[in-house]
Amino acid sequence: MGLLPGFLSTAPKSEAEKRADEVRTGAVAPTRAERARCWAARDAFYACLDAHGIVDTLNSEGRAAAARACPAEGAAFERDCAAQWVTYFKKWRVQDIQKKARLKELEAQGATRMDVQTDFTPRR
After folding, report:
1. For residue 100, what are the domain limits?
2. Are 91 and 56 within 8 A, CB to CB?
3. How many domains does the chain have?
């Protein structure tokens, strides 16, 4: 005799678990402490990826490599950050690594680095 998934007994979620689910789905904005926890989890995940030479976790090969090499860090990152943030940070990581590699390549070819102001605040 099998049980249907809807009839399995599950403990009710605590208020903290409910809040975490709401942050993960984007239903509520994260507090400063929740953002800090997300960034710490992201940084730990990135450190693990760097240690194992994994760049892109958005493709199936990178996702599998990250799951093998950094399961705890990946789970914490997914748990502590809003789902949209996780996707954004993963895309940003790939683009940032590609940008740095391209800049290094250009400098090796003799390009000159230029300081560029990217905001509109007046310089003093």
Report:
1. 29-106
2. no
3. 1
Asked if the structure places residue 8 within a domain, the reply is: no
- If pLDDT is split at 50, 70 and 90, which confidence band does 3 have? low
Query: Residue 86: how many CA atoms within 13 Å on its side-chain side?
Result: 20
> Cα(117)–Cα(70) distance, rounded to whole angstroms?
37
- The answer to whether 33 and 90 are in contact (CB under 8 A) is no
Digit-coded pLDDT (tens) for 103-115: 999 999 998 888 8
34 is a domain residue? yes
pTM of the model: 0.76
Distance of CA 30 to the CA centre of its chain: 15
